[in-house]
Specification:
Elements lengths: L1 E9 L3 H19 L2 E6 L4 H7 L5 H9 L2 E6 L14 H11 L4 E7 L12 H4 L3 E7 L11 E3 L4 E3 L6 H16 L4 E6 L5 H13 L7 E6 H10 L6 E4 L1 H11 L10 E5 L5 E5 L16 H13 L4 H16 L2 E2 L9 E2 L2 H12 L5 H8 L1
Parallel strand pairs: 1-2, 1-3, 3-12, 5-10, 8-9, 8-10, 13-14
Antiparallel strand pairs: 4-5, 4-11, 6-7, 11-12
Helix pairs in contact: 1-10, 1-12, 1-13, 6-7, 8-9, 10-11, 11-12
The structure holds nicotinamide-adenine-dinucleotide.
């Protein structure tokens, strides 16, 4: 299979974790005789420095032509004082919008080796394995421009959805549930919000098309509680933009480290942008301490969702499990009795597990 991947390393630890992602993609290509080509572009703070804008046009054009996009992270204190429209984060929001990335998929899985790292009790977290499907381009964050009225004493934000926006994310969630444990929880606030009542209507209409999936509705406050008291209850959660933003951060405590959480954002053509959930971690940037596993697990999502390479994706996930089982970890996660290694060493362990011919030549090729 031939695929062209655009890499957007960005800022802080972004370039380090992007290198790790690229090495893993190359290892998969070597083992399974695929051909992956790569093209680097600027986004975020580095793009502001190089080209005077957080989202240069050449980045957008390259991303539109790519089979998939990998993004490291954007942002950092260097750019914190810039006006809103010039902030690195504008690059990220802009590319999501330009590519129509409406479906944000965040799997949250508790790894046995890291159960002790969660602030929740081990018996609660153990065996948690859920997927949050968040609507990413509508709702409160994209409503009419927020307004201040009455001399600034009154504020208005707008939560707007068109039926078709709800339909496509609900379809995505049902399809995700079909290839998992076939249980879908639709989260809303239908006792208060009209948008949630339409959300429920759509879910009810759609369920006939997915008879193999059991579906239920849950109010967002109840879902927030259940996520930390009984996370194994959930398989797939689908919800609107802001609820998904909050619930997915809450669910991240199950894994014990931000460095373990991957994500995918997909558009209607199956083109996706894959990125770790964490930010640019300026406090450890350039020290080779960044945990690359969230990025490597994002690569597994790319192989599965954009390229349909299920076996290869599973191989990457298994390699991560094996490396953790071997006790290897970066400084952010404490595997009891394990061996602390650098970010690049941890990535190399995963590459070894994937079983590529990881020759010096290969490594050099990946780092150019
Ligand atoms: N998607 C993105 O690009 C994204 C997401 C969140 C934050 N940000 C930006 O990142 C910058 C820093 O934000 P923050 O500090 O709130 O969040 P952060 O995720 O960058 O860091 C939070 C903490 O987690 C640690 N951490 C994060 N990723 C890690 C990894 N892979 N390995 C080891 N430790 C890791 C950091 O060292 C830090 O202590 C800000 O400019 C913020 O706007 C970007």
């Amino acid at each position: 299979m031939e695929k062209h991947i655009v890499l957007l390393p960005g800022d802080g630890i972004g370039p380090e974790v992007t290198k790790a992602a690229k090495r893993v993609l190359q290892a998969v290509a070597d083992r399974y005789q695929h051909s992956f080509t790569f093209e680097n572009h600027d986004i975020g703070g580095v793009a502001i420095d190089q080209q005077g804008t957080p989202l240069p046009e050449d980045t957008v054009q390259a991303a539109k032509k790519a089979d998939a996009i990998f993004l490291g992270a954007v942002g950092g204190p260097k750019w914190d004082q810039l006006p809103g429209h010039m902030r690195p984060e504008k690059g990220l929001l802009g590319i999501r919008k330009q590519l129509g990335l409406f479906a944000n998929l965040r799997p949250v899985k508790a790894f046995n080796q890291l159960l002790h790292a969660s602030p929740l009790k081990q018996e609660v977290v153990q065996a948690s394995d859920l997927l949050i499907v968040r609507e990413l381009t509508g709702g409160l964050y994209f409503g009419q421009p927020s307004e201040r009225r009455n001399n600034g004493e009154e504020v208005v934000d707008t939560l707007a959805y068109e039926r078709r926006e709800i339909e496509r994310i609900v379809d995505q969630a049902f399809q995700s549930a079909q290839v998992r444990r076939k249980h879908l929880t639709s989260v809303d606030k239908a006792n208060v919000l009209e948008s949630s009542r339409m959300w429920r209507e759509v879910v009810e209409e759609k369920k006939a098309a997915y008879p193999d999936v059991s579906v239920e509705h849950m109010l967002v406050d109840a879902a927030a509680m259940k996520l930390v008291t009984n996370p194994t209850y959930f398989d797939v959660i689908v919800t609107e933009n802001m609820f998904g933003d909050i619930l997915s951060d809450e669910a991240s405590v199950l894994t014990g480290s931000l460095g373990m959480l991957p994500s995918a954002s997909l558009n209607e053509n199956g083109v996706g942008l894959y990125e770790p959930v964490h930010g640019s971690a300026p406090d450890i940037a350039g020290e080779d301490k960044a945990n690359p596993l969230a990025s490597i697990l994002s690569v597994a999502m790319m192989l599965k969702h954009s390229f349909g390479l299920e076996e290869e994706a599973e191989q990457v996930e298994t390699a991560v499990q094996e490396v953790l089982s071997g006790g290897y970890h970066t400084a952010d996660i404490d595997v009891k009795g394990g061996t602390k290694v650098s970010g690049s060493e941890l990535a190399a362990k995963v590459v070894d597990q994937i079983g590529s011919n990881d020759t010096t030549e290969n490594i050099m090729r990946c780092y150019v």
